[in-house]
Amino acid sequence: MGTANQIEQELMSYISDHKIRNTHSHHLPEQAMVDFDLDKLINNTYLQWQQVTPGTTAESRTAYLEKTRYKSYFVWLQKAIGELYGISEPITAQNWNQISDQIRKAHQNPDFYMDVLKNKCKYQKVIVDTYWNPGSDNGRPELFTPAFRLDLFFLGYKKGLRNHDGVSLEENFGELPDNLQDYVEWVRKWIIQKKSEGCVALKIAMAYERSLHFEKVTREQAERVFRLQESDITQEDIRCFQDYLFWKICEIAAEVSLPLQCHTGMGQVIDTNILQLNNVIKNNPETKFVLLHCGFPWVDDLFSIVDGYPNLYPDLTWLPILSYTASKRVMHQLIEMSQIDKICWGCDTWTVEESYGSLLAFRFSLCSVLREKIEDGYLSVNNAKDIIDKILFDNAGKIYV
């Protein structure tokens, strides 16, 4: 066995040259990024979630950088910008406009978008959740395969509703059925249609809207929303409708053999931990539940059930760019506790720059974990390469068939 540095170099070289099946993203269509600059790029990354913006002056940008420079999102985005645009110095208020010009010029090249994703990132396939246009492949079926996001259907208890992204159920899928039985069949029809159009997974991100505790309610409880005047519908009525629908979607997912990707952890953060889904996972053994983000920050929930359900699949999506410290801990324990052929990774980003940054964070975390396990005598170098093969490529090919 070589030195720690030699092992790390060998592993990083192996990871960096490896083709990847990226299991979760929100990549914008390339035409949406034609006029990107540094400000627009930041506004389409996770940095826009924080309560501070860069502004347009040297003073405001300096203040912004002082607040964000050490945040994980910024660190990995800056590393990606550095590699993609050949910039060796950190982003500053003084070079901000110069970097913006480089980004703008690059995105005006029609080949830049796909070159980064296919050649720099080495993505062979990317599962994309275009929540603004559910089920789209961004017009690039050679790279993108859709996950069909179903959150809009949970708004079917009332006409005219929009979700937190401003997207309308009716504008995307037409007139709503007026009774529960027809509504469930309508949802089933759309799922079957989207599968025929190339969708390889279903996606639920209701943790941004509500608890992940979906109870097994009766049909009578769920259909109350269709009998009541809109002004008489209560939160309990809405909950029962949504709970019932979620269980039905789990059944349909099994019927049509589509994995169900579930956003867990971060969101509205009240009861969005993985154990809220325990009863659903247990009672739908034929449904493949892909637990995106591993329930971060409540990752111990995952470890409590990861070895107990054959239909549970942990996905490291988003986690390395959120916190490489947390992602390393999760990877260490998943290698020890989960079936290695169940684990996948996705970038969970909108732009090519942040996607590459997310990949850099993932490579760094995985390489570090595997090196430590080799040093501890837990794995051999060949074992580590086998794990890399599975997580980066092989597993997704078996889960999303």
TrEMBL record:
NADP as UniProt keyword: no
Amidohydrolase-related domain ranges (all copies): 226-400
Entry keyword set: Hydrolase, Isomerase
Residues in the signal sequence: none
Coiled coil, from the record: none
KW Nucleotide-binding (keyword) present: no
Molecular functions per Gene Ontology: hydrolase activity; isomerase activity
Pfam family membership, one: Amidohydro_2
PANTHER family xref list: AMIDOHYDROLASE 2 FAMILY PROTEIN, NODULIN 6
Protein name according to UniProt: Amidohydrolase family protein
Lineage of the species this protein comes from: Bacteria, Bacillati, Bacillota, Clostridia, Lachnospirales
